[in-house]
Design goal:
Blueprint (H helix, E strand, L loop, with lengths): L1 H40 L1 H8 L11 H6 L5 H6 L6 H44 L10 H4 L7 E6 L6 H11 L3 E7 L9 E4 L4 H11 L4 E3 L2 H7 L4 E5 L6
Parallel strand pairs: 1-2, 1-5, 3-4
Antiparallel strand pairs: 3-5
Amino acid sequence: MDLVERVGAYAGLAAFLGLAILALLYFSQARDVRRLREWAGRAPERAAETGAPQHYLPPTAIEEVSKRQRKPLLERLRRIHVPQARYLALVAGGVVILVGAGLAAFQLVGDDGQAGSSGQATKRQASGGGGGGGGKSTPAAANIRPSDVTVAVLNGTTIAGLASQVGEEATADGFTLGTVTNAARTNQTRSQVLYRKGQKAAADLVGNRLGIHSEAAVDALSAELAGSFDVVVLVGADRSG
């Protein structure tokens, strides 16, 4: 919307100036048409004037023409034909409209370039990891939509609410949140991403987004606690900071 407002401002200014110039040209043309009608209404008078005897000058000899001096520069400048004011105004209006359109196009192209750079930066950020982590990324993980991955969170510590905190981070990154509960063991020091069979790429994506670099296949006990899931995040004491 901000881009539309800025481009619209340039286009509106150019259109306003163009309409003003067209209005001036319209009134000037109307004045000329009125004069032409008045002149056409005096046709009988002009016919009478043309009936008067005409006088012709004798032809000038070639020798006299060759002897004539060139006219002064100032007089020649006076004889230079200058276009009427309305044509000059029309040219000026066209230049103003072209300049306004050029500014609007330049603004539009510049904003498109900035949007493209922002989009590339967003893609690099998505592939480079979220949640403050610089985890690894694989081509298979880049093709997975976070909303298609169900993440269960198991609290492997005695810190209350730590699993819910990690679950909120997973939801903020676009993942579908599954079961949030306590793990079978509460002495987990380092967080770990566990995955069921065939979900290694999804685990890479979750670990990359949450900044967890340790991955392993899920064990039977954790799978039973997690219920329906694609990836299990076993939260350790390192997430308490």
